[in-house]
Amino acid sequence: MKIRLLALAAFASMSLSAQAVEVVALWDFNSGTTKHTQSANGASFATVGGVTTTFAAGLSSTQALNTATYAANGANQSMGVQFMIDTTGYTDLSFSFSQRNSNTASAYSALKYTLDGTTWITATTLLTPAGTGFTSHSFSFASIVGANNNANFGIQLVASYAPGGSAYQATAAGSSFGASGTIRYENVTLSGTAIPAVPEPQTYALMLAGLGVVTTVARRRRSA
């Protein structure tokens, strides 16, 4: 019985390990001259609406992507950054990043996504408070089934009007939104669970045969 339990425990452990969360794509903006185009899974980065980028101080001793040139009269949710990520082979996706705004940057950002590479849908609106530090943001795509296993999946982070309003709201009280405002991004990460490969019929046969051998050995020991 002990041997059979150990075998079953080992099998369960293998099944669980196959469900571990993995990094699908990551931008840490820390090394090389093409930092903003690097990722873990061949993903791509682009700016939206004429936004420009440089690099500035990030978390601790790291660097962050600094975005600027947000037009004062820009249309709502039309300026920011875009990450196209092939999620083929992954499910239960989760997106996270750290953000730091200057006083005159838009306090609100919209997190948008696409399932076809063309049509963008607003998932949520995020508020980044004023201050000298970074704010951590995250969003789960677990309930958005179409994001799973999708070669055309993408995410945008774009400046957004204040909820219910018709204009941008500056991050710091007493400031006015303007083109001089900047937004920094750090550790932009999409994580997911790898979709297990479907075992071939012969694999199931070998597994059952192995369990049968273990059971036989256990019975013989018990009857000895």
TrEMBL record:
Residue ranges annotated for the Ice-binding protein C-terminal domain, each copy included: 197-222
Highest taxon of source: Bacteria
InterPro entries per UniProt: Ice-binding_C
Signal sequence, renumbered to the chain: 1-20
Keywords from the UniProt entry: Signal
Name the record gives this protein: Ice-binding protein C-terminal domain-containing protein
Organism annotation: Inhella inkyongensis
